[in-house]
Amino acid sequence: MSTAERPHSVSVAGVIVDDEGRALLIQRRDNGQWEPPGGVLEPRETIPEALQREVLEETGIKIALPATLTGVYKNMTGLIVSLVFRCKAIDGTPTTGDETYALRWATRDQVTELADEAYAIRVLDALDAASPPAVRAHDGVRLV
């Protein structure tokens, strides 16, 4: 099956924002990259269920629902459509897990220093919480 014929996967990510306006980033165990917690939707799982599950698995934090959709992003090479939400923590303490090497509360400037452009923009869009949500494309690293 060619890339053009391959189906897209759908993922969610949650940008948890604290009272100081910082975002919680995770450092992934599989590639060492800094990004917001998230992952691929499972079969028969709703978008809110996936968002809550992924954030909890990767951070130890339970988020409030509904969360605010802040952006839709397409990885043009990986064929992944990501829905990113601004989230509020309601329970738990930031904790590393099986998929998370480290966690860090980051300011806007720290987000741009730590994360690749394609992931930093997701966090910045969530911090801005603009309406309507941002719609962007990237190649896995840089915006296109």
Task: Explain what this protein looks like in three dimensions.
- By secondary structure, this protein is α+β, with helices and mostly antiparallel strands.
- It has one domain (about 10-140): Nucleoside Triphosphate Pyrophosphohydrolase, CATH 3.90.79.
- It has helices spanning about 45-60, 110-115, 115-130; strands spanning about 10-15, 25-30, 35, 40, 60-65, 70-75, 80-85, 90, 100-105, 135-140.
- The strands form 3 sheets. It has a 5-stranded mixed beta sheet with strand order 4-1-7-6-10, sandwiched between helices. A 3-stranded antiparallel beta sheet has the order 3-2-9. Strands 5-8 form a two-stranded antiparallel ribbon.
- Helix 2 runs antiparallel to helix 3 (about 115-130).
- The longest helix is centred in the middle third of the chain and has 13 residues, at about 45-60.
Please describe the structure with a list of short key phrases separated by commas or semicolons.
3 helices, 5-stranded mixed β-sheet, 144 residues, Nucleoside Triphosphate Pyrophosphohydrolase
The parts where pLDDT drops under 50 for at least 5 residues are none
Major beta sheet, strand line-up? 4-1-7-6-10
Counted up, domains total 1
| Number of β-strand runs | 10
CATH architecture: Alpha-Beta Complex
Shape: globular
Major sheet size, sense and barrel closure: 5 strands, mixed
The helix-strand sequence is: EEEEHEEEEEHHE
Radius of gyration from CA coordinates: 14 Å
Q: What is the fourth-level CATH superfamily?
A: Nucleoside Triphosphate Pyrophosphohydrolase
What is the CATH class designation? Alpha Beta
Under CATH, the topology is which? Nucleoside Triphosphate Pyrophosphohydrolase
Helix content: 10-25%
Q: Calculate the mean pLDDT score and round it.
A: 94
Backbone structural class: alpha+beta
Distance between the termini: 25 Å
In percent terms, what proportion of residues is strand? Answer: 35-45%
